[in-house]
Amino acid sequence: MFSSKVGTPISHSSGPQILHPRPVHQPSTIKRATNVTPNTHHISRRPLLSRLTWALLVSSFAISQISLVHFLHAEEPAKKPAPILLFDGQTLDGWKKVGGDATYSIENGEIVGRVGPGPNTFLRTQATYGDFELKYDVKLDTPGNSGVQFRSHQKDGTGRTFGYQCEIDPSPRQWTGGIYDESRRGWIYSLDKDEQARKAFKIDDWNTFVITARGPHITTSVNGVRCADLIDTADLEGFIALQVHSGKAGQIRWRNIQLTPLGQSAWKPLWNQKDLAGFRAIGGGEWKVADGELVGTSSKEESRHGLLITEDAFRDFAVRVEFKAITGNSGLYFRCVEADPYGVAGFQAEIDPTKDVGGLYETNGRAWIFQPSAEQLKKAFKPGEWNEMTVVALGERIVIHLNGIKTVDFIDKGGRAAGKIALQLHGGDDMDVRFRKVEIMRLDDIACCTE
């Protein structure tokens, strides 16, 4: 880190119309009389000129209409894919039950799940989905905890399901619409501070849910009320599943389950694991590739900061690195520009052998924005081992995870919107830091709520 000065922490919170051009109008065919003897003594030029003028006007109009048609079609927005019915109202084709012994049946075009013995039970799709918008209706006949899994998986091919779950929570807590990470991290988006969202679910009536997942950005709504607005990169694809939670009581109904595919987000290498192509070294220290690792070293006598910076700049993106900090202070720069006196100005996700890992620092700016607590570090960081860090910069929102644990969720109002990515060697330190994976996901076409 370029400075040890601690700054003041900054608080934070949480169908296109298609134009159809008018058809090109062709002039009507004019039949001429054939039984009229022309006056050869005096032929007026006006009819001939009128016909020529009319022809020119029609040609110009037709050309302009063709140009208009071409322009409108060229600018026409892409059509949103048609939704897919995941449940046809009559059969459970495309679904299978895993986990416990709850039962699923079809009544009146609805899937009815009833509590049974054993652990949580899931009716899952056989297909998997990446980016999508999922809509469905839910009604509780008998109140009980439930939910809908998405981008989910099974452990070792068994019925133990893990992954994101849009919660159905009729308890006094009222966290319906929040996001629970089943069999993994637990609650990752609760509704404890959102009274409007907690009141959206109707216990004795049908409720309409919408889940939208695009890249790392996940939102949920219940009856038109926004509930969750999550940034998370743990899973980019997986199956959909209807949960019946274990317990003594609970009967749940689902209907109108439809999914609109929105493509598939994926990580791509930013570093090719062979050489330094796409990067440029500036400042002190040395960068080399050895045994499939990107190794950065520098001596304590080197006062200059060393940086391995990308040739390209990026606006909205997610970047993921696997690193091992052996000695010295390092960092993952993003939305940065080259500037004196430290080589760059911009954001840095902290990398260090012992402290502040996963924090957010702004070089040539606000200094420390967030420093993780000792409790966060104890839970998330593995000293001396390989660690995974992800940084998502989406609009004004910046989110950092360390080994799946969120350390920063920050709204940067009117701040840095784009820049390069760089790896740091801190000057004045005996440096040894290693990377074995540097990946990126472009998010330029994904909008993000920053409220």
UniProtKB/TrEMBL annotation:
<dbReference type="InterPro" id="IPR010496">
    <property type="entry name" value="AL/BT2_dom"/>
</dbReference>
<feature type="compositionally biased region" description="Polar residues">
    <location>
        <begin position="1"/>
        <end position="16"/>
    </location>
</feature>
<dbReference type="Pfam" id="PF06439">
    <property type="entry name" value="3keto-disac_hyd"/>
</dbReference>
<feature type="region of interest" description="Disordered">
    <location>
        <begin position="1"/>
        <end position="25"/>
    </location>
</feature>
<feature type="domain" description="3-keto-alpha-glucoside-1,2-lyase/3-keto-2-hydroxy-glucal hydratase">
    <location>
        <begin position="84"/>
        <end position="259"/>
    </location>
</feature>
<feature type="domain" description="3-keto-alpha-glucoside-1,2-lyase/3-keto-2-hydroxy-glucal hydratase">
    <location>
        <begin position="267"/>
        <end position="440"/>
    </location>
</feature>
<dbReference type="GO" id="GO:0016787">
    <property type="term" value="F:hydrolase activity"/>
</dbReference>
<protein>
    <recommendedName>
        <fullName>3-keto-alpha-glucoside-1,2-lyase/3-keto-2-hydroxy-glucal hydratase domain-containing protein</fullName>
    </recommendedName>
</protein>
